[in-house]
Specification:
Distance between the termini: 52 Å
Number of strands: 0
Oligomer: single chain
Number of helices: 10
Number of domains: 2
Order of helices and strands: HHHHHHHHHH
Length: about 200
């Protein structure tokens, strides 16, 4: 009986830590997107705190929150491909299938942002049309930087989601990215895009 009470206490403590870390991460992203910026080391700490320690006892299924409904990746991709000024022609793209990059970018869309996310992405691309055109011209397929094997994500339609998340939730995006993919791709994209808060530098 006492062991069960202790276990519930510990599970509750870890849940509280995760909630606080998640709240701090939101503050960090909000601060970054309002031009005040935060140190990259704080972002890495917050991303680390979001994950429960490996030694933490697992909560019973009844205690776990219901999983969030995932975004429809195919609908998001179809939207991204409608913007020819921001994505290279299919035959020029480095990856015919960039689904891994898209999956990581979409994992950085918070549950409360998923409703209407396609409209948010459309607005982002329209707002940054000139900037996207310039980035595709200077760093996209066929450019001098790309000929040296760098900036491989530029020209991919999935990159529009990455850039939108880079502007909206840079710390969360980087935390998710570092768990799944090589950071050099994100570092190059950050450099070419020139975000307000450059986490890789």
């Amino acid at each position: 009986m006492r062991g069960d009470a202790v276990r519930l206490c510990v599970v509750g403590w870890f849940a509280g830590v995760r909630d606080v870390a998640s709240h701090l991460l939101r503050i960090a992203d909000t601060t970054a997107t309002t031009r005040r910026g935060l140190a990259a080391s704080s972002a890495m700490l917050l991303a680390h705190l979001q994950q429960p320690p490996s030694s933490a006892p697992e909560a019973s299924p009844a205690e776990e929150p219901a999983p969030a409904v995932p975004l429809d990746a195919s609908a998001v991709m179809a939207t991204a491909e409608r913007f020819p000024w921001a994505a290279a022609a299919p035959g020029e793209r480095h990856w015919p299938d960039g689904s891994d990059f898209l999956a990581v970018a979409l994992s950085a869309v918070r549950p409360e942002e998923r409703d209407g996310y396609i409209e948010r992405l459309e607005a982002f691309v329209e707002q940054h049309r000139a900037r996207l055109e310039e980035m595709l011209r200077t760093h996209g397929p066929g450019s001098t930087p790309a000929s040296h094997g760098r900036y491989a994500l530029i020209g991919q339609p999935e990159t529009l989601v990455i850039l939108e998340r880079m502007e909206s939730a840079p710390f969360l995006l980087r935390g998710q990215w570092e768990e799944e993919l090589e950071t050099v791709f994100l570092d190059d994209l950050e450099f070419a895009w020139g975000p307000r808060t450059r986490l890789s530098r």
